[in-house]
Amino acid sequence: MAFFVRTQIGKAPSGAMVLPRAWLIPLSAVFLSACAGLPTDESARSATAAPVSELISSNQLPGGSKINTTQSLIMGSGDNWFGRVIVELSNGNTGYSFFLDQYPQQGWTLVSAVRGKSSLLVFTKPDRSATVEIVDAAGLASASATLTVSPKNSLPVAPKKP
């Protein structure tokens, strides 16, 4: 059913409900006040998101690194978090050295390491695995690292034959 507000003398379309002009302002206020209670993306995010420092241990990232919170996805907290963290590094070489030296001290076993403009480190723990991809700075962009941590599947599933 459509509502029309009478703005000039004349007939409304057949079957339409015609509201007097005096109802326009109160009706608009009701609709606008209903929208005012809806959370914006920023307020909803700040109400539910904990600070990154509470979600992942500070010793898991190089000093001076900055987490890109808009591209990161962190589930869980402390030493048992999993997800993807995008980190801006001050230097790709120091970031690579940090992960290569510090992660084994935190109980991670190095599985594979490849060094280049785009470096890759793979670590495991009995219950989790971590992949660190480090991209060196290019032009005005700073070096970055993508740290992906996930639980290990305790029962590997064999691929199905077609």
Radius of gyration: 27 Å
Unreliable stretches (pLDDT < 50, length at least 5) are 38-49
Sheet with the most strands? 7 strands, antiparallel
Oligomer: single chain
Strand content: 25-35%
How many DSSP E strands? Answer: 9
Distance between the termini: 54 Å
In DSSP terms (H or I, runs of 4 or more residues), the helix count works out at: 4
H/E order of the elements? EEHHHEEEHEEEE
What percent of residues adopt helix (DSSP H or I)? 10-25%
Query: Based on CA inertia axes, which overall geometry fits?
Result: globular
Mean pLDDT score, rounded? Answer: 74
Can you offer a commentary on this structure?
It is a single chain. The protein is an alpha+beta fold and 162 residues long. The protein has four helices and nine strands.
Keywords, please?
162 residues, alpha+beta, seven-stranded antiparallel sheet, two-stranded parallel ribbon, 4 helices, 30% strand, globular
Strand-helix topology:
Blueprint: E1 3-5, E2 17-19, H1 24-36, H2 41-48, H3 52-55, E3 66-67, E4 73-75, E5 82-89, H4 92-105, E6 109-114, E7 118-124, E8 128-135, E9 143-151
Parallel strand pairs: 1-2
Antiparallel strand pairs: 3-5, 4-5, 5-9, 6-7, 7-8, 8-9
Summarize this structure briefly.
With 162 residues, the chain is an alpha+beta fold. The protein has helices at residues 24-36, 41-48, 52-55, 92-105; strands at residues 3-5, 17-19, 66-67, 73-75, 82-89, 109-114, 118-124, 128-135, 143-151.
